[in-house]
Amino acid sequence: MKKSKARGFTPQSEWNQVDWRKLERTVFKLQKRIYQASQRGDVRVVRRVQKTLMKSWSAKMLAVRKVTQQNKGKKTAGIDGRKALTNKQRLVLVANLKIHKRPQPTRRVWIDKPGRKEKRPLGIPTIYDRALQALTKQALEPEWEARFEPNSYGFRPGRSCHDAIQAIFKSIKQMPKWVLDADIAKCFDKINHDALLNKLNTYPSMKRLIKGWLKAGVMDEGIFTSTDEGTPQGGIISPLLANIALHGMENRIKEYAETLPGNKRRNKTALSLIRYADDFVIMHKSKEVVEECQRIIRKWLEEIGLELKSTKTRLVHTSNGFEFLGFNVRQYQTGRHQSKQGFKTLIKPSKKRVKEHWEKLSKVIDRHKAAPQKALISKLKPIIRGWCNYNKCVVSKETFSDLDNRLWNKLQRWGYRRHPNKSKTWVNKKYWGTKVEKPKKWYEAPKVDNWVFMASEDNYLPKHAKTKIIRHNKVKGDRSIFDGDLIYWNTRMQKHPEMTSQKGTLLKRQEGKCNHCGLIFRDGDFMEVHHIIPRANGGNDQLNNLELLHLHCHDAKHRKKINLTNLDDNPF
After folding, report:
1. How many other C-beta atoms lie within 10 A of the C-beta of residue 15?
2. Contact residues for 143 (Cβ-Cβ < 8 A; gap 6+)
3. If pLDDT is split at 50, 70 and 90, which confidence band does 208 have?
C-alpha cells in the first residue's frame, strides 16, 4: 500500500485493497514477542515491543477495522453521535490515532438484567476511544496472558465458562469438598484506580492513557458525572483491566496452602480457586480451611476497593450442590456397586436457566399465535440449538427430554387453537410428521423419528433430546493463543460446545480459514455462514453450497449499504 506525502494515504478505495493477511501476521509476530518476553520476565523487551506495536500502522488498521466492521456494537454511538464510517473516514481515523489525545466521557445507557428489576449501567466510548482501546488491548493482552493464573477463565481469549466447569469437576470428582461460592459486589464499578494502575506497572505514556479512560467520566442524559473508581462497562479494554485488578487471588490462596500442615505440594492441589470474571469458588475438604480462605480473600479484596456480595456468597458442601455459570454442581450418594467412592459427581443445567429457556420458548410461541408454521420454526430453531449447544457438555439428557415433552404440549395447544373446528387427529397430521434419517453406514437401519414438528422435509423443529452429549476438554492451564500453536487453538475452536456442527464442519473443511480473505479465524472473531448460490437463485442449505466467512467479509460480499448521513470526510 503506497503512502501519499500530502495526506499520508492514497484514496478511499485503498481500504478494500489492504492485504489484511500481511497486517495480521505483522501484529501477531509482535504480540508473540511480547508474550515470550513476558514469560521469561524480560520487562525491557516487553516495553520496547509494546511501544513499537502502539505506533504500528498495521496494529492501528486492525484496531479500526475491529471497532468499525467486526464488533456487534459498531452501530452504537458515543457522546459524539458518530457510529458509522466510510472507508475514507476509517483511513483518516487510523492516521489520527494518537495516545496523547485526551479521552472523552462515555455515554451511559442502562440495560435490563435478565430476570431482575434492577438495571446494569453500560458506558459507550466514542468511536475514536474505542479504536484506541482496541489498539492498547493488542499491546497489553499478550503481556498479561503470560502472567495470568491458570484457573482464571473469564474474558480471556481461548477460554470459556465450560473450561471453568471442567476445572471444578476435576477438583471434586475424587473427594467431597466444602465450597465457598462467592461473588464480588459491583466489581466493575468499585475497583480502586490507584491500586489498578500500580498493578499494571506499565510505561508512563501507557499509564497516562489508561488513567485518562478511568477518569474520563460519564454522560447520563446530558448530565456529567466524574468517575473516581471502577472501570466503565462497555469499553473494549474494561474486561482486561478487571482481570488485571483481580490477578493474584489464586496465588494468595496457594500461599496460604503452603502454611497448612503436611505436604506443601499436595496441599496446593487440594485447595483450589477457580475464577470466571468476578465469580469464583474455593474448594477444600476442610470447612475450617475454606472459612479461613474467605477471610483472606475478603481482606485481599479490600486492598483494591472491592468486597464480597453477602447475598450471593455462601458456604456449601458438594453433597448439597451449588450453582455456577448456569450449571448445578452436586455429588449424589450411590451404592458401592455403582461407584467405589460411594458418590457420583453430576453437573446439570441449573433450574433457573432451564426456567429462563422455557419462558423464552413460551413467549415466542405466544407471540406467533397467528403466524405460519415456517415462521414459528425459524424463530424457535436458533433458540433451541444455541441453548442445547451450551449445555451439551454436561449431564443434560433428562433435562432435554423434559423440555421436549413440555414443548410438544405447548405446540399442540398452539395447533388446536388455530383450528377449533377441526379434529385433533387432523391438526396432528397437519403440523407433525415423521422424519427418517439416513444411516451413516450401509449396514445400519434408518432412524425413524415420529412426532416431529415440521412444515416440510427440510423445514422442521429440532428436538432438544437429539443433541448428543459431548464432553468438553479443558484448556491446558499454561496455554495461550499467543504461543503460536495455531493447530491446537484451531482444533479447539472446531470442537467448542457453542460451535454448531454446521460451522464446525465448514471450519474443518476450510482448514480454519475464511473463504473470502484467506485469514485464519481467531478466538473472538464473528463467523457467518454464506450461501454460495443464493436461495433466491435456487441455492439450497446443503454443505456444498455453504462457506464460512468473517462478519465483515460477509458484509463485503453482500455489499451492505450503511446510512452515512451528516458525516463529513474528517470527523476527527
Report:
1. 22
2. 34, 35, 38, 46, 50
3. very high
Parallel, antiparallel, or unpaired for β 314-317 and 322-324?
A: unpaired
Distance (Å, rounded) from C-alpha 489 to C-alpha 145? 15
- CA 409 to CA 417: how far, in whole Å? 12
Cell of residue 49, nine digits: 515491543
Cell 462467592, located at residue: 182
User: What are the backbone angles phi and psi of residue 39, rounded to the nearest 5°?
Assistant: -60, -40
Strands 106-112 and 218-220: parallel
392: nearest Cα among 497, 290, 466:
497
How distant is the alpha carbon of residue 57 from its chain centre? 28
Question: What confidence tens digit (pLDDT) does each residue in 284-331 have?
Answer: 999 999 999 999 999 999 999 899 988 888 999 999 999 999 999 999
pTM: 0.84
Q: Are 191 and 242 in contact (CB under 8 A)?
A: yes
Cα–Cα distance, 203 to 263 (Å, whole number):
41
3-state class of 473 per DSSP? coil
Which of the two residues, 446 and 135, has the higher pLDDT score? 135
Residue type, 407: L
The rounded distance, in Å, linking the Cα atoms of 80 and 95 is: 19
CA distance 294 to 248: 15
CB neighbour list of residue 301: distance below 8 Å, 6 or more residues apart: 184, 307, 308
pLDDT of 364 reads 95
Closest Cα partner for 325 from 390, 236, 401? 390
The tens digit of pLDDT for each residue in 453-511 reads 998 888 899 999 999 998 888 888 888 888 888 778 777 777 777 677 777 788 878 87
Q: How far apart are CA 377 and CA 364, in angstroms?
A: 10
d(CA 423, CA 395): 39
pLDDT value for 546: 85
Residue the block writes with cell 496452602: 257
How many Å apart are CA 383 and CA 402, to the nearest integer? Answer: 16
- Cell numbers for 384, please give them: 433451541
DSSP three-state, residue 273: strand
pLDDT tens-digit map of 100-127 = 878 888 777 777 766 666 677 777 788 8
CA distance 46 to 527: 32
CB neighbours (10 Å) of residue 52? 14
Q: Rounded to an integer, what distance in angstroms lies between the CA atom of residue 535 and that of residue 541? A: 8
Average pLDDT of the chain to the nearest whole number: 84
Q: How far, in Å, CA of 215 to CA of 21, rounded?
A: 36
- Looking at residue 393, its amino acid is C
Q: How far apart are CA 365 and CA 377, in angstroms?
A: 10
Q: Which DSSP string corresponds to 325-345?
A: TTEEEEEEE--TTT-TTSEEE
Pair type for strands 527-531 and 279-284: unpaired
Confidence (pLDDT) at 77 = 64
